[in-house]
Amino acid sequence: MKTLWYQAGGGRIVGCVTATSASPLSPATGAPPVAAGRPALGPLGLFTVLLGASLPLIDFFIVNVALPSIDRDLAAGPALLELVVAGYGLSYAVLLVLGGRLGDLFGRRRLFLAGMTAFGLTSLACGLAPDAWTLVGARVAQGAAAALMLPQVLATIHSSTEGVRRARALSLYGATAGLSMVTGQILGGVLVAADLAGSGWRAVFLVNVPVAVAGLLLALRTVPETRSDRPAPVDVAGTLLLALALTTLLAPLTEGRAAGWPPWTWVSLAVFPFAAVAFWRVERRLDRRGGTPLVPPSLLDLVSLRRGLVLLLPLCMGFGGFMFVIAVALQQGLGLGAIASGLALVPMAVAFFGASLAGPRLVRRWGTRVVTAGGLIQGLGIGLLAVTVRHAWPDLSVGILLPGMALAGLGQGLQLPVLFRLILSEVPGERAGVGSGVMVTTQQASLALGVATLGSLYLGLAASAPDAALPATLLVQLAMVALTTLLSLRLPRSAG
Questions:
Q1: Which of 119, 292, 410, 451 is the most exposed place for a label (fewest CB within 10 A)?
Q2: Distances, alpha carbon 308 to alpha carbons 1, 279, 304, 453, in Å
Q3: Which residue has the higher pLDDT, 438 or 376?
Q4: Highest mean pLDDT among 35-39, 162-166, 298-302, 387-391
Q5: pTM assigned to the model
Q6: What is the number of other CB atoms lying within 10 angstroms of the CB of residue 128?
Q7: CATH numbers and ranges of domains, the chain
């Protein structure tokens, strides 16, 4: 028998419990305490934060299959449709690191609750938008809410779990992230086709509202409060420069093609390298002076984080671009409905889920070589899809695409969860918020870059050679997969 002190709320000791050494429990969360004086995240709390993690990622992709319906209903046009996607992704990416820092400063549970509330309200605003510009504004606000909520998920996991429980939780986060990206488009297709109560495309946003309410009620009871032991003030200069750098890169790439590449897009791209260099110099100077920069350059001294982020960039670029292109190609190129284009992704989702479940056991035996194997399998799947599309176009069907989709999903499921776990494996607890913010910002910016680059490539080719557009785009993604596979050989053998 032993007495265990536990925490709740803002970290204040509020009581104790006596338990046997075989089954100690934290009354606040229903889980074993992590360490003396630290709150623990129980199974229901983990489910709650993973639910919060799934919402922003689902919403990045759920819109893809709803775009034709939005265009018909709101007469949006190509430029505004791009903004519906890009506005969300841009505000989301720009504010993620700041969201992580605010969680370190004010408490991650508090920011998670605030972000969940804001996400539900902005989803309601999207679903009720009377015109295209209102929808764009609501999507920008929705992205900002997501940036407030999502970094708290990983930071909470990192700060309230240890050892095997942390490894399992991070693997589940990776599985949730990947499945959310795939199932977002499947769910979008089902909701648009179902036309619930005549809501049409609006259902893809309104469905978030009851989920957010449920998440709030669960979080109030099951998610412990954590924060940095040494909270630091917000790095205003670093925040503004990072926002400038990401905006000047992502805005012209996502909006340029639809807008006809006006002068502002080229000016913006020219400003990007100067903004990026200025950001890095300001952060490095502040770090050397003993301050607390928004993105501490010393954080990149962690080999697992640095090499993992380098690999995450092409992996998520390819993933984001593929999901966007396949939705457009199946609906606009082949005239398939929302349901059929969503069903085409089911084999990918099922294979990803299976690989995610097997991943932890495989990692214990083979380490990060599982990521290399995943890259090879994904490459085989993408290559098979390219060959299938090239020879079967325009007589494609869900059945013909199934083998390639399943292999691609299997490979991605062996990569993404392991990579998330590896990137955060060496990040100290007091930097959990900023470490999570940096990783998720890289992921989100890469997804947006993939949509912008591969999407622009496909749409440009589709105008002149519709039968060659999708195979050519898939071959470019295959080159990205080859790059990720090579980069995986430089990862530390252990995933933490």
A1: 292
A2: 43, 21, 6, 22
A3: 376
A4: 387-391
A5: 0.77
A6: 13
A7: 1-40 (no CATH), 41-234+294-488 (1.20.1250.20)
